[in-house]
Amino acid sequence: MIERGLDVFLPMDAVASQRMIDREPAIRRLTLEGAVPASVQSVVFEILRDSRHPLFKQASALVK
To answer: What is the pLDDT, as a whole number, of residue 33?
Structure first.
């Protein structure tokens, strides 16, 4: 996605791996390639843009 010129956000609170030792190197590699560390909440609200979005209340309840 990055190679295609898209902005990639990495929701850090949703990243997991089978072995903890693999998590940090994977995150480091993705950020070095251009992925932007973020939280699930910030990604959701960025997609919705503002509180006037029809799904804002539903999304807000989910991320709480």
So the answer is: 95
The domain locations on the chain are 9-63
Residue range 35-56: average pLDDT?
Answer: 88
The contacts of residue 26 (CB under 8 Å, 6+ apart) are 15, 17
Angle between helix axes 40-48 and 56-63 (nearest 10 degrees) is: 180
CA distance 51 to 21: 39
User: What is the tens place of the pLDDT at every residue in 7-25?
Assistant: 999 999 999 889 989 999 9
Across the chain, where does the E strand assignment appear?
9-11, 36-38
